[in-house]
Each structure stands twice: as C-alpha cells, then as structure tokens.
Here is the input.
Amino acid sequence: MGERVEIFEVGPRDGLQNEKREIAVAEKVALVDCLSKAGFNRIEVASFVSPKWVPQMAGSADVLAGIKRADGVRYGALTPNMQGYEDALAAKADEIAVFASASEGFSKANINATIEESIDRFVPILEAARHIDLPVRGYVSCVTDCPFDGPTPPEKVAEVADRLFSVGCYEVSLGDTIGQGTPDTIAHMLLAVRERVPTTRLAGHFHDTNGRAIDNIDAALALGVRVFDSAVGGLGGCPYAPGAAGNVATEAVVAHLERLGYQTGLDLAVIEEAAQTARAMRSQ
Ligand code: HMG
Ligand code: MG
Here is the structure.
C-alpha cells in the first residue's frame, strides 16, 4: 500500500472567490455536495471576509446552511478578523483559517494590514477557537514571489509560518499565490520553513499560472510535504493578486499522485464529475 497524501479541496472557496460572474448559492451548494462524496477529509467552502472586498463570497453562511454535511468531512471557512470568526461560528464551520502573507505588499493589498498587524488580529481568533476546540489552519501567501514586492526571501516565509504555528494554527499552508514558483524556489523556501515548523504540519498551496504546480508538488513531496491544496476543475485565483490564475486542478493532482504510487483515498470518478460542474460554472 502506497504512502498517504491528503488533498485539501479549496475549489468552492479559492476557486469561486475569483469568478467574475455572480454564482448563485444553489450552484455552490451543488458543487460542494458533489465534492462531499469524493472522500475528502476537509473542504474549504466559505469565506467570511468583507463583501466589499470579495463580493463573490457574500453568500457563505447560506452555503454552509445549504450543504448536506457528509460524515467525516470538515467544512472550512476563511476568517480575516473577529467579525469573520463570529460569522463562521454562527454558520457552524467545522474549522477556520486565518491568512497572512510573507510579503508586505500583498498583505496590504489583500487585507489592508501589515504582516505584524495581521498576526495581532489573528491572536484573539486563535484564543477564542482554542476554548471551543475549533481547528484553525494558517495560510502564508506569496511564499516565493509577490506581485508587488518581487521575490520573497525564504527566511521571511519561515518567520511568518513559525508565527502562525506558534500562535496555534494546527497546519500552515504555503501559498504560491501567483504561480511563479519553480521546483528550485519552492525547495529553497521549504528548506527554510522546515527549520521552524515540522514538515508534518505543512501543506503546499500552489497556483498553476505558469503550468508548474505539479512540478512544484513533486519538489515539496521530495522534502516530505504530504498535504496539498487544490481546486476541482482548476478553478480559482485571488482577486487581490494580479496574475493569480487557477489553483492546480484536483483531478490532475490526484491522477499524478496515484501514478507515483501514493494513496489519496479519493474517488477520481466523483472528482471528474465535480470538475465538470466546476468547469461549467466557470464558462458561463
Ligand atoms: P478594511 O477595509 O481595512 O476593514 O478591510 P474595516 O474594518 O475598515 O471594514 C471595512 C468594511 O468591511 C466595514 O463595513 C466592516 O464592517 C466590513 P462598513 O462599515 O464599511 O459598512 N467588514 C466585514 N464584513 C463582513 N465580514 C467581515 C468583515 N470585516 C470587516 N469579516 C478586511 C479589512 C480584512 C476586512 C478586508 O481587507 C478583507 O475582507 N479582505 C479579504 C480579502 C480576501 O478575501 N482575499 C482572498 C482570500 S486570501 C487568498 O485567496 C490567498 C490564499 O488562497 C492562499 C494563497 O493563494 O496564497 C488563502
Ligand atoms: Mg490561493
């Protein structure tokens, strides 16, 4: 039996947050309900951010209320501040995620805060979540390159990842937000991060702007990372990162991992069905 690699599905959040047309809650619910049958442990389905900043995520509470929750699946939501945390709690998210950047330019553009200010905002969220045993994931964006500041020093990524881990994030997902990473820059970044955060607590979150996400996953696998974020149908991007194309497609990652002999526990036929739904949502 091959070694296990977990895929964290982010399509309904990272994917749909960037679609230009308004997507009805019922369409989002249908996509999540399909994904719920694929065997994921975790699916990110919502984002309690300011609707002025990301109008596409405005119906997040309705999505969480509308989905059929499958046993054993945790449905996650982004929470940039206490207001987002309270909304996520009211909507019964099973886990939440705070998101920081390794570059100041993107931090300002994405959440209107410096890196330091953003972590100060996350501390009360993590404290509140700890009291009720709500798992909190942490994201670090721009782990190799920033659309505003250029290349990101690996030590800076390590520092921010360490901060998120130290304040209580159970896992830190490392985002190549604009898909400019190469196997080489990803490996350098990971070698620095591994000095500060156990590899078993890291995830790779690679956008596929330059078609290199699968090669970057291979580089991360070689350094021991065993959790990867992806979006069904290759949906996605980030509205505050010019040039951020879709996340790497879940169906491509699963097929690739299985070719390499890893076990994902996922049903590729169901994922293909969800990918078709996702692609149809995208092309309308
Ligand atoms: P701000 O303008 O500095 O904050 O935004 P504010 O406190 O002045 O609030 C502005 C307005 O938003 C106020 O409303 C607040 O009430 C409201 P007004 O008084 O003007 O009517 N507001 C909220 N409404 C709903 N939910 C909330 C909330 N907070 C404030 N939680 C803020 C700061 C953080 C809110 C804003 O910058 C924001 O929402 N940013 C989110 C941007 C975003 O979602 N980006 C995409 C996700 S990150 C990503 O995709 C990267 C990732 O995939 C990893 C990778 O690829 O690298 C994770
Ligand atoms: Mg992303």
Observations:
- The chain has one domain: 6-281.
- The first helix runs from residue 11 to 15.
- The radius of gyration is 17 Å.
- The pocket of 3-hydroxy-3-methylglutaryl-coenzyme A (ligand 1) is lined by residues 14, 17, 47-54, 78, 80-81, 83-84, 87, 99, 110-112, 139, 141, 175, 177, 205, 238, 240 (CB under 6 Å).
